[in-house]
Structure formats: C-alpha cells, structure tokens
Amino acid sequence: MKRITGIKSKSLAHTFAAILLGFASLVPAAGPDTDVIVKTAGAVSYVSGGIGMESRARIDSLSRDFNLKLVFASTSGEYLSGVQVAVADAAGKTLLDATSEGPWFLAKLPVGSYQIVATSTGKAQKRQIAVGRAGLATIDFRWASE
C-alpha cells in the first residue's frame, strides 16, 4: 500500500506542477516592450507607443527598421496619444489608417511620396513627405493646448 500511495503522491505533485506551469504561461511577462507591438496593414509595418521612458527606448531601438517617424505633442510640449494617423500615397490611395498608442509612431513605407494626416481632438493636420530606402524621415505634429 505504501508504494501505491507514493506513486499517487508523485502523480499528484506532477499534476499540480503542470497546472501551475499552465497558469504561468497565461500571464504575460512584464518588460519594456509590453506596449510595443509591430503591426501590419497591407504592405505597411508600423509601431506606436512611447508612453514612458522604457517604451520610448524600445521604440527607439526598433527605429532602424522603419523609414518614417511621427511625433505627436501639444504646443506646450506634452506628448499626445490616441492620434488618428492616415497615410496616403501620391495617387491618393490610403495605405494606412491607424490610431497611435503613444506620442511616437514609426512606419515602414515603400519608397515614394506620401500625404500624412494626423488628427487629435478632431483637429487634422496634413504634411507631405518623401521617404527613401535608408534613413528615418521625421515629422513633428503639434496641436494648440486647450
């Protein structure tokens, strides 16, 4: 009888350990890149964030993979998030329509000319930009503080 009990105890211990490991895998690991996810829309890859120093550092480390950087802030210098971003090519075709999760927005666009429309609190701003194969073109968008 003792041997059977030992086997049951081991089996129970292994089962319990497996359950704990299963639950642990359901909890996301915390880290500096938890808010930074590269997304795609058609042929365009993009990432946004930058709320907090760790998030900005993570996005900055990814910048070499992108050719367009947008920065959103108020005229008083406070960073903004929740900015609607629309990118259209020279023919007027919208390639990207997304909401920025922070003040920094990076995109990887095909080489060419684009119109960027950024909208915050219902106020849209337009900019024209040409992006190349190398380098990071940067555009700052500033909205009057209310």
* DSSP helix fraction: 10-25%
- State the name of the first-level CATH class of the largest domain: Mainly Beta
Give the low-confidence spans. Answer: 1-7, 12-34
Number of domains: 2
Number of strands: 9
Alpha-carbon Rg, integer: 23 Å
Count the DSSP helices: 2
CATH-defined fold name of the largest domain: Immunoglobulin-like
The side-by-side strand order for the widest beta sheet comes to: 1-2-6-3-9
CATH superfamily of the largest domain: Immunoglobulins
Overall 3D form: globular
Question: What amount of the residues lies in strands?
Answer: 35-45%
In short:
By secondary structure, the chain is α+β, with helices and mostly antiparallel strands.
Describe what this molecule looks like in 3D.
- This protein is of the alpha+beta class and 146 residues long.
- The protein has 2 domains: 1-30; 39-143, Immunoglobulin-like, CATH 2.60.40.10.
- 24% of the residues lie in helices and 40% in strands.
- It has 2 helices and 9 strands.
- The strands form 2 sheets. A 5-stranded mixed beta sheet has the order 1-2-6-3-9, with helices on one face. A 4-stranded antiparallel beta sheet has the order 5-4-7-8, with no helix packed on it.
- The chain is globular.
